[in-house]
Amino acid sequence: EKVSILQVGGHIITPILQPIGIQSENWAASVAVITGLFAKEAIVGTMQSLYSTGELNMEPSESEQASASLGN
Length: 72
Hints:
- The protein is an all-alpha fold.
- It has helices at 5-17, 27-53, 62-70.
- It has one domain (5-70).
């Protein structure tokens, strides 16, 4: 059986994450939690860049305007 770097890392960090309910044999969940943190950080950084440059179109689309008028 081959052992990956993620598996080894998961086994190392799982005891730290046990207070949030991750069991000791569930190393894959530990890896998912840690990699999820990095993915969210990338999303936040991208959104910050888009909003700060003003390149994002802030005007509502026709479909957004139509659905807003339906609520009135």
